[in-house]
Amino acid sequence: MTCTRCPSTIQKDRKTKTNAIKTSKYNPFTFLPLNLFEQFQRIANAYFLFLLVLQVIPQISSLSWFTTVVPLVLVLTVTAAKDATDDIVSKRVFFLCGALRGEKWMNVQVGDIIKLENNQFVTADLMLLSSSEPLNLVYIETAELDGETNLKVRQALTVTGDLGEDVEKLADFNGEVRCEPPNNRLDRFMGTLTYAGQKYPLDNEKVLLRGCTLRNTQWCFGLVLFGGPETKLMQNCGKTTFKRTSIDRLMNVLVLCIFGFLAFMCTVLAIGNCFWELNEGSNFTAFLPRQDGNEATFSAFLAFWSYVIILNTVVPISLYVSVEIIRLGNSFYIDWDGKMYHAANDTPAEARTTTLNEELGQIQYVFSDKTGTLTQNIMTFNKCSVNGKSYGEVTDSCEASNKVDFSFNSLADPRFVFHDHSLVEAVKLENPEVHAFFRLLALCHTVMAEEKREGELFYLAQSPDEGALVTAARNFGFVFRSRTPDSVSIVEMGRQRSYELLAILDFNNVRKRMSVIVRSPEGKLSLYCKGADTIIYERLHRSCSKLMDVTTEHLNEFAGEGLRTLALAYKDLDEEYFNGWKRRHHEVSTSLDGREGKLDELYEEIEKDLLLLGATAVEDKLQDGVPQTIELLSKAHIKIWVLTGDKQETAENIGYSCNLLREEMNEVFVVSGNSPEDVRQELRSEVSPIGKCFPSHPIHFFVLIGSVFPPESTLGNGGVKAMADEAVNGEYGLVINGHSLAYALERGSELAFLRLACLCKAVICCRVTPLQKAQVVELVKKHKQAVTLAIGDGANDVSMIKAAHIGVGISGQEGMQAVLSSDYSFAQFRFLQRLLLVHGRWSYLRMCKFLRYFFYKNFTFTFVHFWYAFFCGFSAQTVYDEWFITLYNLVYTALPVLGMSLFDQDVNDAWSFQHPQLYVPGQLNLYFSKKAFFKCALHSCYSSLVLFFIPYAAVHDTVRDDGKDVADYQSFALLTIAHNCFVISLSPRLQLGFEMSYWTAVNTFFVLGSLAMYFAVTFTMYSDGMFLTLPSAFPFIGTGRNSLNQPNIWLTILLTSILCVLPVVTYRFLFIQLCPTINDKVQVRQAKATPPPPPRRTRIRRTSSRRSGYAFSHAQGYGDLVTSGRFLRRPALPRSSGFSHAGRTTTSFSPMGRSAGYSPTGRPQNAKVSDVEVTSLQMYKTIRDPAL
């Protein structure tokens, strides 16, 4: 991409920022302090730093400093490297600039004038100065701002448009812009331009916002008004925050509890030391002399801090290293998953962060964008009803032989697909009703046609459905070629015909229809009308009653398949009547009072006694597998809310198409208040009837339509109580239109709004701004305290992606902004089910098992020290040697637990999809919680008692085979160490066997390898050679071979292991038999049954009586634009009829979307924008023709 910069003398009254955008957390200067600050927010890290300070005090420390320094440095280094990698990989963006004077985007400043060319991304908020198009028009796509793919028109002031592309004039441009301060209102701009002594008003129609893309315009120049974080797009984007999982937050709480427990144990042992010194200490002064002045209380004080050091393993610093390794491994599983790879655009799934994997197994709310996330932005003409006969089939895939051959029409779109040959035969047989049907589609629209080369047509439609309908007429022999303000040229079955365009009765949200009045080359006057069937039926002639009944049946069938329907009708007009009507129309259009109402009356007058032609059925194509994914996630008790900037009609129809909404709902409430009081009253009145239905199971539908953004954040401070879930009988819906959403999010209404929304299973928010999306997410996070996930594909989704606990970016048609801000990314919405139900659930399950077992082994290790203190005079002597303490977590016991945490699967992926209810325990925090933690502590207490007292009793007053004493300190320490390793490493074959459901060769190697490592290291460190090398570091010379060669030692190890494992075996056996969990049941089924077949993505049908309104992406005003008397146009190419009965000629066609679907921008799907050559399109100034 390139952008051109030239200086300007525009006045700047305030200090402005550059256009640089920061989307990363760190830079080279702030990385070290910020990362260390973030890491020391973990209480355990701060604790070990404090512990290190204690260990340098000789009077306190009984352990060497390296036992703390090595693990702490290792933890900090590994975590910092991981954080740096995440930040570099996921937040890197490059911008290039060049032309008259090349500049990087980040260097663009307020007051600069930049040049943009076709298909370029708008880099800052600009005031449009001039363009290559007539009347200084430009066409922009705003999909990354509001999700709408239909093109929008902007027009420069005439005074600046005269500057053209003359660089010298632009450089000499000297004006003053005064405008509103930076804000997040995408739909409003207020300002003035003072130039040459005159003031000119500026509004949203004169501004190009950052995030837009220039389309069908060769070039334009713009003046930078706002840059960088002051642009409206960035004002709608939330701050990049440090995301932490709920397990991380719980671990912080648990670490505080552990600190309290550690202080309690140290206090008990210090008191014990004080009493021992008072009662027994004097007996040992001969070989343990006291320093002068040292009393029992001071000894107890020193003992307290000594035991803080010795019992430090109760706060496991190695836990964080292990957690990061597990998260990294689970992230690699996502990256390597071939079933989440999208071959069509060569896009694999990517875990862009490694810190949130287990949170994927606890999602309760999914917030999704619509355009580009659920849908493909492609419209296809699938079915139609003409004169009482239904044509077409809705198929996902068909044999090539079943496709209609359009070779008779060399102007046909080669990508258009239709599967009913009878319709083509009716066209060829010149069926008059069929011809009239397609003639209406070719004439009644506001589509613009571009024909750069002979026969290569490119359609630009303001509404995607209009493009699909005109493309259908084109393929069936009625080809729209061009238009002027007063004519429409089409090719009818090979004959070039030009119709005089007399009037366009434009669409609006009330009329829900549009009409055109044309005169045929033979002089026949006709009115063609298309619109919502209910609107058209009210205006039909009585003679159409039978045809209306048949067509209604077809419409119900089309709507039942999720298709968007329109009814078509026409009437012939009398010349004398039309002349009188036209005269009255001119008088009304020039009046000042009540113009709109009088025009509607005139339209009503002429649009009556119509004759029905038939109906069309267009499919807004969903991405593959969307209905099945939504259904599966719903079964997993995951609530799905759709937050879109699109219109209500569009969102509702997509909701029905993907089975998010259903016809079986009991009632749909509508909230349309125009004030905060009205909205609060309506919310209360509509919660009341639902509340009477209490309780059963939650169900739900919800639609929000709102484009008015609240003036300030509606969210309060933290510390609120979570709103409890409620249940109802039946299914209910809610619609909030327009500005009502803003009032619903205000402090006085937000709880009533949230309560009503949470009684719903599916929520659809329409016409929301990016910041409103984030507000809805924050509202749920704050008051429901549930884990949330946001998924989207455009820049307008960045704010909610940042606000949610988990952000997922779709690599789609709307750029990479969402992906760059996300935590995970992939190409299709359907991969979300695998991310959550497979990878998320496995990650959460593995992490919870790891934490339970890690705390168990560390508590067991530490409690042995506590019991030993009662037998060593509370002298802070360790029961283990220092090398065992250092290597216990890093070498001896790390691998068995890591093996379980990296490879365990309770059930495989196929059974996870077969039983989505397996996901529910994660939402309820059943696998790891405070309760589970305290159970681990009690289990550890029991195991430590066995590990200490069984060996103590076994070696008490015991001698070796040669009569020598066994019960020396070093032999007892070795025996305790051996028991500990066997219980933690070998007994996992039994104890972990109940936890680990998926044994692999790696798991087995880790368990047996850890034992082999223990013996290898033990015999090495206790050897004569190590003692001779460093006597002070390896004092346990010969202890290993002297103790482990005694049979009673091995019998003691066996007895201890059995006593430790027996309670676990008993508990698991009784629990599975008496109250098995769903995991237990599915594991039994998996062991006995063959794996279920992979789910097939079949089309989900529904029965519905609901039909869509007219062209719901359409907007009012294009009729006036088309018929503008100031329309300018470039010379047209000479054209042939375009038909050949001798066969189809080879022609290069502009892509029109996949499967003959209509893409409003005309871009081929999954192709780079830069590969498409698009020229400017002629458009028109929005004024009324005074001659009409």
From TrEMBL:
<dbReference type="InterPro" id="IPR023299">
    <property type="entry name" value="ATPase_P-typ_cyto_dom_N"/>
</dbReference>
<feature type="binding site">
    <location>
        <position position="796"/>
    </location>
    <ligand>
        <name>ATP</name>
    </ligand>
</feature>
<feature type="compositionally biased region" description="Polar residues">
    <location>
        <begin position="1137"/>
        <end position="1150"/>
    </location>
</feature>
<feature type="binding site">
    <location>
        <position position="369"/>
    </location>
    <ligand>
        <name>ATP</name>
    </ligand>
</feature>
<keyword id="KW-0067">ATP-binding</keyword>
<keyword id="KW-0479">Metal-binding</keyword>
<keyword id="KW-1278">Translocase</keyword>
<feature type="transmembrane region" description="Helical">
    <location>
        <begin position="883"/>
        <end position="903"/>
    </location>
</feature>
<feature type="binding site">
    <location>
        <position position="797"/>
    </location>
    <ligand>
        <name>Mg(2+)</name>
    </ligand>
</feature>
<feature type="binding site">
    <location>
        <position position="466"/>
    </location>
    <ligand>
        <name>ATP</name>
    </ligand>
</feature>
<dbReference type="InterPro" id="IPR032631">
    <property type="entry name" value="P-type_ATPase_N"/>
</dbReference>
<feature type="binding site">
    <location>
        <position position="507"/>
    </location>
    <ligand>
        <name>ATP</name>
    </ligand>
</feature>
<feature type="domain" description="P-type ATPase C-terminal">
    <location>
        <begin position="819"/>
        <end position="1076"/>
    </location>
</feature>
<feature type="binding site">
    <location>
        <position position="793"/>
    </location>
    <ligand>
        <name>Mg(2+)</name>
    </ligand>
</feature>
<feature type="binding site">
    <location>
        <position position="370"/>
    </location>
    <ligand>
        <name>ATP</name>
    </ligand>
</feature>
<dbReference type="InterPro" id="IPR001757">
    <property type="entry name" value="P_typ_ATPase"/>
</dbReference>
<feature type="binding site">
    <location>
        <position position="773"/>
    </location>
    <ligand>
        <name>ATP</name>
    </ligand>
</feature>
<dbReference type="GO" id="GO:0005802">
    <property type="term" value="C:trans-Golgi network"/>
</dbReference>
<feature type="binding site">
    <location>
        <position position="371"/>
    </location>
    <ligand>
        <name>Mg(2+)</name>
    </ligand>
</feature>
<feature type="compositionally biased region" description="Basic residues">
    <location>
        <begin position="1096"/>
        <end position="1105"/>
    </location>
</feature>
<feature type="active site" description="4-aspartylphosphate intermediate">
    <location>
        <position position="369"/>
    </location>
</feature>
<feature type="binding site">
    <location>
        <position position="797"/>
    </location>
    <ligand>
        <name>ATP</name>
    </ligand>
</feature>
<feature type="transmembrane region" description="Helical">
    <location>
        <begin position="1049"/>
        <end position="1071"/>
    </location>
</feature>
<feature type="binding site">
    <location>
        <position position="767"/>
    </location>
    <ligand>
        <name>ATP</name>
    </ligand>
</feature>
<dbReference type="InterPro" id="IPR008250">
    <property type="entry name" value="ATPase_P-typ_transduc_dom_A_sf"/>
</dbReference>
<feature type="region of interest" description="Disordered">
    <location>
        <begin position="1085"/>
        <end position="1108"/>
    </location>
</feature>
<dbReference type="GO" id="GO:0000287">
    <property type="term" value="F:magnesium ion binding"/>
</dbReference>
<dbReference type="GO" id="GO:0005886">
    <property type="term" value="C:plasma membrane"/>
</dbReference>
<feature type="binding site">
    <location>
        <position position="646"/>
    </location>
    <ligand>
        <name>ATP</name>
    </ligand>
</feature>
<dbReference type="Pfam" id="PF16212">
    <property type="entry name" value="PhoLip_ATPase_C"/>
</dbReference>
<feature type="transmembrane region" description="Helical">
    <location>
        <begin position="998"/>
        <end position="1022"/>
    </location>
</feature>
<dbReference type="GO" id="GO:0045332">
    <property type="term" value="P:phospholipid translocation"/>
</dbReference>
<feature type="domain" description="P-type ATPase N-terminal">
    <location>
        <begin position="14"/>
        <end position="69"/>
    </location>
</feature>
<dbReference type="InterPro" id="IPR006539">
    <property type="entry name" value="P-type_ATPase_IV"/>
</dbReference>
<dbReference type="GO" id="GO:0140345">
    <property type="term" value="F:phosphatidylcholine flippase activity"/>
</dbReference>
<feature type="transmembrane region" description="Helical">
    <location>
        <begin position="253"/>
        <end position="278"/>
    </location>
</feature>
<keyword id="KW-0472">Membrane</keyword>
<keyword id="KW-0547">Nucleotide-binding</keyword>
<dbReference type="Pfam" id="PF16209">
    <property type="entry name" value="PhoLip_ATPase_N"/>
</dbReference>
<comment type="similarity">
    <text>Belongs to the cation transport ATPase (P-type) (TC 3.A.3) family. Type IV subfamily.</text>
</comment>
<feature type="binding site">
    <location>
        <position position="530"/>
    </location>
    <ligand>
        <name>ATP</name>
    </ligand>
</feature>
<dbReference type="InterPro" id="IPR023214">
    <property type="entry name" value="HAD_sf"/>
</dbReference>
